[in-house]
Amino acid sequence: MSAHSKHTSRSPLRILKIVLLCLAGTVALGVALLAGLTWYLSSGHLREIVEERASAYFAADCTAAHIDFTIWSTFPHFRLEVDSINVVTTESMNIKELIIIQKNKLTKLL
């Protein structure tokens, strides 16, 4: 058996090994990114983000009791569970006025 034929018989195995390593690397990167996202969106940090954005959106003081981000048990979908959000308007308006204002904001976006 010549050196050339020995080299070509290993070539498909080498290519398969490289493809499998690339696939494993891609999967590991995806898992690492999802783990990082889950760590970043911890309950406390996510609550701060939601309270800040909701307060700015509603022009009111918003507080959230408990917010949980889940991706591992619902993969490939994620779930965002919100226990309760309290919206206290800073101005003297009722909920109907607040809803009308938000509808107007949405129609301007569309």
Describe the protein's architecture and organization.
By secondary structure, this protein is of the alpha+beta class. Helix content is 63%, strand content 16%. The protein has 3 helices and 4 strands. The strands form 2 sheets. It has a two-stranded antiparallel ribbon. Strands 2-3 form a two-stranded antiparallel sheet. A hairpin with an 8-residue loop joins strand 2 (67-70) and strand 3 (79-82). The longest helix is centred in the first third of the chain and has 38 residues, at 3-40. The radius of gyration is 26 Å and the shape is elongated. The model has no long low-confidence stretch (mean pLDDT 80).
Concise account of the structure shown:
This protein is of the alpha+beta class and 110 residues long. The protein has helices at residues 3-40, 43-58, 95-109, and strands at residues 60-64, 67-70, 79-82, 85-89.
* Beta fraction: 15-25%
Strand order of the largest sheet: 1-4
**Helix segment tally:** 3
Distance between the termini: 72 Å
How many individual β-strands?
A: 4
> What order do the helices and strands follow?
HHEEEEH
SSE-based structural type: alpha+beta
* Mean pLDDT value: 80
Specify the helix fraction band.
55-70%
* Overall outline: elongated
Give the oligomeric state of the chains in this entry, treating copies of one chain as homo and distinct chains as hetero: single chain
Q: Whole-number radius of gyration?
A: 26 Å
Largest sheet: 2 strands, antiparallel
Poorly predicted residue ranges = none
